[in-house]
Amino acid sequence: MAAADETFEQFEEDDGADTTLALCSAGRKRLFSKELRCMMYGFGDDQNPYTESVDIIEDLVIEFITEMTHKCMEIGRTGRVQVEDIVFLVRKDPRKYARVKDLLTMNEELKRARKAFDEIKFAGNIK
């Protein structure tokens, strides 16, 4: 029990925003650790980055996703997240907007390729 008290006392010294983030992330299962490690390595970090670094980046990613989701739910159809809402939110940030457009275009190309592949596969089974 003393270890838990010491951990809490460490958080009390920081400002409120950091306390909330640290307390929320402490008991949460890590969702993106493996992917973030690979991304960090791809962007020049060590092949095995510090767990603390991965955890901090994951906290930032989760916070970004949460904020964007809440903002999306407030615009457009209330309570629902739609692609158009995300495009609307990132429209003023050229890098994010370009990336969203690229991903949407790639998604459409993959759908068409899958459909064409399934049609060829289906036609081959009929003969």
TrEMBL record:
SUPFAM superfamilies in alphabetical order: Histone-fold
Organism whose genome encodes this protein: Asbolus verrucosus (Desert ironclad beetle)
Subcellular location: Nucleus
Protein name: Transcription initiation factor TFIID subunit 13
Alphabetized Pfam families for the sequence: TFIID-18kDa
A GO term from the CC aspect: transcription factor TFIID complex
Gene3D superfamilies to which the protein is assigned, alphabetical: Histone, subunit A
Protein purpose: The TFIID basal transcription factor complex plays a major role in the initiation of RNA polymerase II (Pol II)-dependent transcription. TFIID recognizes and binds promoters via its subunit TBP, a TATA-box-binding protein, and promotes assembly of the pre-initiation complex (PIC). The TFIID complex consists of TBP and TBP-associated factors (TAFs), including TAF1, TAF2, TAF3, TAF4, TAF5, TAF6, TAF7, TAF8, TAF9, TAF10, TAF11, TAF12 and TAF13. TAF13, together with TAF11 and TBP, play key roles during promoter binding by the TFIID and TFIIA transcription factor complexes.
GO MF annotation: an example: translation initiation factor activity
Keyword Nucleotide-binding annotated: no
Keyword Chloroplast attributed: no
Assembly and interaction partners: Component of the TFIID basal transcription factor complex, composed of TATA-box-binding protein TBP, and a number of TBP-associated factors (TAFs), including TAF1, TAF2, TAF3, TAF4, TAF5, TAF6, TAF7, TAF8, TAF9, TAF10, TAF11, TAF12 and TAF13. Interacts with TBP, and more strongly with TAF10 and TAF11.
GO biological process: transcription by RNA polymerase II
Key words, A-Z: Initiation factor, Nucleus, Protein biosynthesis, Transcription, Transcription regulation
Family: Belongs to the TAF13 family.
Domain of life of the organism encoding this protein: Eukaryota
CDD domains (alphabetical): HFD_TAF13 (cd07978)
